[in-house]
Each structure stands twice: as C-alpha cells, then as structure tokens.
Amino acid sequence: MFVVPSIDILNGKCVQLINGRIDTAKIYGTPKEYFNRWVNQGADLIHIIDLNAVFNLGSNKNIIFKLLQNGAADVQVGGGIRDEKYAYELIKKGTKRIIIGTRSLDIGFLEKLSRKISKDKIMAALDTKFGCIVIDGWQVDTGVSYEEGLKKIKQYVGSILSTDVSREGLLEGPNSAILHLVTQGNIPVYVSGGFTTKKDIEFARRLGFSGVIIGKALYEEKLNLMELW
Question: Model pTM?
Fold first, then answer.
C-alpha cells in the first residue's frame, strides 16, 4: 500500500500536532475507533506513534498491544523505542516494523537490533527540520544532514521514514526540495509532512517513494482514504 494512515496517540486519544509541538495537539477520537475506520476503508498497513513515549510522558503501549491483537491490518509502531527489550516485545506482539527515532543515529544500537531482528522489521526515522535530522521529540537538532545520517545507518535498517517536521500538520503541501533530497540512497523510503491533496501523493509516487504517511489531511477530511487506492 502506498498511502499509510497514521494514528498518533497522546493520553489514550488520537491527536494531530503542528510542527511536532505537543501544545498544538488536537483530539479526534480513540485509537480503536480510528483503527477500525482505516481498516474498513481498505487500509492494510497502519502507522502508529506513541506520543507520550516520544515526549517521555509515559506510555500508551497497552493500547498499542490491543490494536496489534486486532490482526485486520499490519502495523508499524514508533515512539519511545529506545531499548532492545521494548523493541523485541513489539516484534513478538506482531508489529510488522518498529520505528527507531531518538536512537536512529546510534550505530551500536541499530547493529545490535539488526543481529536479532530482521532488517526488514527495522525502520529508522530520519526526521528533518530545515535539512538537519532532529530527535528527542523533534526538539534536538543533531546537526547531521539527512545524507550523512542515511550513509551511516542504511546497512542496519530495512527502510527509512522521513518526516519534514516544518510542514507537519500545516496542510500546506510537502516541501518539494526536501522530497527530491530524500529520494536518494537506494533504500525504501516513506515520507510524511504536509501531504494534503491527491496531487501531493502522486508527486511522491512519481519520485519513487515506497509510501506516504497521511495524518491530519485524513482527520480533517481533506482526503478520503477510499479514494486513494
């Protein structure tokens, strides 16, 4: 599936953020409600992020584990996966892919994971803000460019997620210059950040991305998931 609907969970609710800022969170409903909605609209892969874990404000993992039991769609999970134990636990629970964010540039951590987990199940989140990779809830600028980061880690992961945080939640379309940049690297890349129209999605498809993660445009009904297949 090229279009992947997102479920971002904060305090047990589905929310959407602007520019990755927690103070902008808008609540839409429950994770179960939206999981079922996306499945009923044809989704066979769903992207779930635990925002509490991202911001070190606890965890929604019990909710995520229940969604994994549903079995109606594959799930990739990110947010707070900073140690091997939780990574392995998610895989055992049936997660298709784990998404490593804060430790995405930690070569030792990725190497250790890739020895015990198939690389196809490891996705690194190389999220960018004005060209540099950001971590720790998108608040820390690593000073590492996307190209540098990708070169360091791509042998240890099966895919990349690249979110343009500066466009996230604005419904203004993606940054075409950033999209051209992150197509490079000979590894499957999924993108997100600003995708609002069918035209935006088709542009990403033409550039050769493996998929687009869609959040706010679906929640605000700017896009209809059933019309995107």
Answer: 0.95
The residues assigned a catalytic role are: 8, 127
Please name which of 12, 123, 116 lies closest in space to residue 62, comparing C-alpha atoms: 12
Domain boundaries, the chain: 3-227
Given a contact cutoff of 8 angstroms between Cβ atoms, the answer to whether 170 and 123 are in contact is no
d(CA 141, CA 134): 5
Q: Which two tokens stand for residue 178?
A: 């950033």
CA–CA gap between residue 217 and residue 98 (Å, rounded): 24
Superfamily name and number for 3-227 = Aldolase class I (3.20.20.70)
pLDDT tens-digit readout, 37-84: 999 999 999 999 999 999 999 999 999 999 999 989 999 999 999 999
